[in-house]
């Protein structure tokens, strides 16, 4: 029998994961637009990708209104860069949406 490749479960969907990845990198990948450009990629003098300036975090890491939990524990945004997601982890990425 062939061993299975390591995976991580993100929002209920298994994804391949060969090496540990930071929460920040995973969120950036998940929020990439159709062209493959990270949604939160900073652009000079404005908000990322033409969005409203107040929709995004001031440091350009990710849009405001995004929360992440790894194995049922919420990861504070300030720790996204140093928190590693390893194979077998369960990750939930939640985005808040405004409207009625």
From TrEMBL:
NCBIfam families named among the record's database cross-references: thiS
Annotated region (Disordered), positions in chain: 35-65
Organism: Cellulomonas cellasea DSM 20118
PANTHER family in the cross-refs: SULFUR CARRIER PROTEIN THIS
Protein name per UniProt: Thiamine biosynthesis protein ThiS
SUPFAM superfamilies referenced in this protein's UniProt entry, alphabetically: MoaD/ThiS
Pfam families recorded: ThiS
InterPro entries for this protein: Beta-grasp_dom_sf (IPR012675), Mopterin_synth/thiamin_S_b (IPR016155), Thi_S (IPR010035), ThiS/MoaD-like (IPR003749)
Gene3D superfamilies: 3.10.20.30
Compositional bias annotation for Low complexity: 35-57
């Amino acid at each position: 029998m062939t061993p299975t490749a390591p995976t991580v479960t993100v929002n209920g969907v298994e994804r391949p994961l060969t090496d540990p990845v930071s929460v920040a990198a995973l969120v950036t990948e998940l929020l990439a637009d159709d062209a493959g450009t990270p949604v939160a990629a900073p652009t000079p003098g404005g908000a990322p990708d033409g969005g409203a300036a107040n929709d995004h975090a001031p440091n350009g890491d990710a849009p405001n209104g995004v929360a992440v939990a790894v194995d049922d524990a919420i990861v504070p945004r300030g720790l996204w860069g140093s928190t590693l997601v390893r194979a077998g982890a369960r990750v939930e990425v939640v985005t808040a949406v405004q409207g009625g």
